[in-house]
Design brief:
about 45% strand, seven-stranded mixed sheet, mainly beta, four-stranded antiparallel sheet, about 120 residues, globular
Length: about 120
């Protein structure tokens, strides 16, 4: 059974930093395009970042570009999300997701496997 497990969430003041990790079972991460999404209370799930499977090309929406960095370590079957200059509006549950079909998508429906989520709270 495929599993993705996120860690690294927590409470941080505005302007601070957090690094999220997502480790997969087997070769789930190393063989997939990997994305991060977030969902705030009462809002739809929002795309945050994607990294391609083999060459590590990344893409971000304007809301996090220049502040967030996605990276991957295929040897460790782990993907990371470094979040800097955090804002209160970044508060959400953050999810990692895997797409074995390598579509490198910004759409949540194109991801087959999901972690359980980790809470990030940014205080003002």
């Amino acid at each position: 059974q495929v599993q993705l497990v996120e860690s690294g969430g927590g409470l941080v003041q505005a302007g601070g930093s957090l690094r999220l990790s997502c480790t997969g079972s087997g070769r789930t991460v190393s063989s997939s395009a990997m994305g991060w999404f977030r969902q705030a209370p009462g809002k739809e799930r929002e795309f945050v970042a994607v990294v391609t499977q083999s060459d590590g090309i990344t893409y971000y929406p304007d809301s996090v570009k220049g502040r967030f960095t996605i990276s991957r370590d295929n040897a460790k079957n782990t993907v990371y999300l470094q979040m800097n200059s955090l804002k209160p509006e970044d508060t959400a549950v953050y999810y990692c997701a895997a797409d074995p079909l390598l579509r490198n998508s910004v759409l949540s429906r194109n991801y087959q496997y999901w972690g359980q989520g980790t809470q990030v709270t940014v205080s003002s």
